[in-house]
Design brief:
Helix content: 25-40%
CATH superfamily: Gcn5-related N-acetyltransferase (GNAT)
CATH architecture: 3-Layer(aba) Sandwich
Radius of gyration: 16 Å
Order of helices and strands: EHHHHEEEEEHEHEEH
Oligomer: single chain
Bound molecules: coenzyme A
Strand content: 15-25%
CATH topology: Aminopeptidase
Length: about 190
């Protein structure tokens, strides 16, 4: 039986998200994509919620905030993905022209680390994204000092972008729809 479930953000999840982003161990090698997300710096749930809905209406389902829960509904983490604009670069990585490409990550509260829950959650997120969006490519930016993140992404099918060692300490990992399909059939 699955230990984890993912659901799209509701307004009453926002205090949990703000707590997560204020947990120093969680944010040590990560940020909350303030620019891509657009509302993480507000502390007001209603402002954040309205902003999220507006962006989602503009950008479609590829702009998505997930909450991860255990089977008994305890919130344990989040994952966020958003579409990249044409010409977007991350160091030497450049968004392929004309393809829908989503950038994101996953974060769990520290008390839930090292139990395989991040790996399980990330696989659910990847399945959802390829099922519900037209994305051709997903990318994630694990910090070079964050082997747990790199391993979680690797187990979900991501591979390192070979064209760049790191940029401001972050590597880039990619998972395209074709590789994802091969994972499912293999
Ligand atoms: C990254 C994160 C989501 C991993 O979640 P998790 O539930 O602890 O990961 P898992 O238990 O599924 O472990 C995944 C793999 O990483 C390995 N791992 C876990 N912690 C590790 C560590 N500190 N050092 C090295 N490897 C580690 C595990 O052994 C496992 O590999 P295996 O299956 O080959 O044994 C969690 O550490 C986290 O929320 N970190 C803070 C936020 C963050 O940095 N997110 C990534 C942003 S890019």
């Amino acid at each position: 039986m699955a230990r984890i479930k993912i659901s799209e953000l509701s307004e009453d999840d926002l205090p949990f998200l703000f707590d997560l982003w204020h947990t120093p161990e969680v944010m040590k090698y990560a940020d909350e994509f303030p620019k891509l997300r657009g509302w993480s710096k507000t502390e007001k749930p209603e402002v954040a919620w309205n902003h999220y809905q507006t962006r989602r209406a503009d950008l479609g389902k590829g702009y998505v905030q997930f909450i991860l829960r255990t089977a008994d509904d305890t919130r344990i983490g989040e994952s966020f993905f958003a579409p990249l604009e044409e010409g977007y670069t991350f160091g030497k990585w450049r968004k392929p022209d004309g393809l829908v490409c989503l950038l994101g990550d996953i974060k769990l509260m520290p008390s839930f680390w090292r139990q395989g829950l991040g790996s399980e959650g990330m696989r659910l997120v990847v399945d959802w994204l390829f099922d519900h969006t037209p994305a051709s490519l997903l990318i994630v930016p694990p910090h070079r000092k964050n082997p747990a993140a790199e391993r979680v992404y690797e187990k979900a099918g991501f591979v390192l972008f070979p064209g760049m060692k790191s940029w401001y300490g972050h590597k880039v990992m990619e998972l395209d729809r074709e590789r994802y399909g091969a994972r499912l059939s293999g």
